[in-house]
Write a structure and sequence with these properties.
α3 packs parallel to α10. This protein has twelve helices and seven strands. The protein is globular. α8 links the parallel β5 and β6. By secondary structure, it is an alpha/beta fold. Strands 1, 2, 3, 4, 5, 6 and 7 form a seven-stranded parallel sheet that branches. The protein is 43% helix and 12% strand.
């Protein structure tokens, strides 16, 4: 087995040069240097065989959720892929901006895109229905045909597992129909095992579509910065990355932009309402962290390898 440490001298040389020039570079020059450095490290990682996955390596999946939820999400995800450290994005098929999100993904076929399987519409005054006719999945919706507002409300109405599977499959098929290169599955707003029999449905669909399921690939999820104060998100994210030990980690983000549309979003569940700032401000601060010099520098300093579910699935299948 090829070990990662075979390429350690190249990596050490690369980081020494980066640190040396960092001491004399300032402002925009430093930003350009860091951007070029990240690209060069990525090229080395891809092209040099000795830099294959190793047991002594820190690997991080940077996943973003809720693509297609709002117009602002489209702007944020494009920015996070192009100028940030995001490696995967989960798309909501029932959400209002799904069609535009699918078009964006078709224009960027190299992105690792998942289906954010959804049974919840959590915002006050901003709701969505199933992709199937709601009369066909009546146990999943309220009297007006909208998804319930939070998991406890859904589960109190005893949803039918067959209808859940039917709706989930329809969401996957809709994303595929719109030409999106689907690479994984995950869940929106609730755990895989939060309702009896639910986890089996996710696993069944993963096998059926030959797709990995985020959170079931032996990755360990670290806290992230969703609930952190806006002004501290970058600092906290950098600290969390600094404390990572070798292994496979999952960093889940909910990104957006600071806009009237996104700041108008208010959770229905009282325990989930953001205090002291709108949803847009919080999600914009998460995006800022993913793009920040501090986070990128820590990834370089810790020699963290950013990976996607495409990478992991290919590795597992021996591709």
């Amino acid at each position: 087995m090829i070990k990662i440490h075979r390429m350690q001298p190249y990596r050490n040389f690369f980081h020494i040069q980066l640190i040396k020039y960092s001491l004399i570079a300032k402002g925009d020059t430093m930003k350009r240097l860091l951007s070029v450095s990240i690209i060069l490290l990525a090229i080395l990682t891809i092209l040099v065989p000795g830099m294959a996955f190793g047991e002594d390596e820190i690997r991080v999946i940077v996943r973003g959720d809720d693509l297609g939820m709002t117009q602002g999400s489209l702007v944020a995800f494009e920015e996070a892929f192009n100028n940030g450290v995001m490696t995967c994005a989960a798309m909501q098929a029932p959400a209002p901006w799904f069609i535009a999100a699918a078009e964006l993904c078709r224009k960027n076929p190299g992105w690792c895109i998942g289906v954010h399987l959804c049974l919840i519409a959590e915002w006050q005054g901003y709701r969505w229905r199933p992709v199937l006719p709601w009369g066909d999945v009546s146990s999943l919706v309220n009297e007006d045909g909208y998804f319930y507002r939070y998991p406890e409300e859904l589960f109190a109405h005893k949803p039918d597992l067959k209808e859940i599977e039917k709706e989930f499959r329809a969401q996957i098929e809709l994303v595929l129909k719109h030409g999106v290169n689907v690479q994984y599955l995950d869940t929106h707003y609730m755990g895989y095992d939060s309702y009896p029999g639910l986890e089996d449905i996710y696993k069944k669909l993963g096998r059926e579509y030959d797709l990995p399921i985020s959170g079931m690939m032996d990755e360990v999820r670290f806290p992230g910065i969703y609930s952190a104060p806006e002004a501290q998100k970058t600092e906290i994210a950098t600290k969390q990355l600094e404390e990572l030990e070798p292994g496979l980690w999952l960093w889940v983000n909910h990104i957006g932009i600071d806009s009237p549309e996104q700041n108008a979003l208010i959770h229905t569940h009282p325990d989930h309402i953001f205090r002291g700032g709108g949803v847009g401000k919080h999600r914009a601060a998460e995006l800022k962290a993913l793009k920040s010099i501090e986070v990128k520098s820590m990834i370089l300093r810790k020699q963290i390898k950013l990976v996607s579910y495409t990478d992991l699935w290919n590795e597992r299948k021996g591709k």
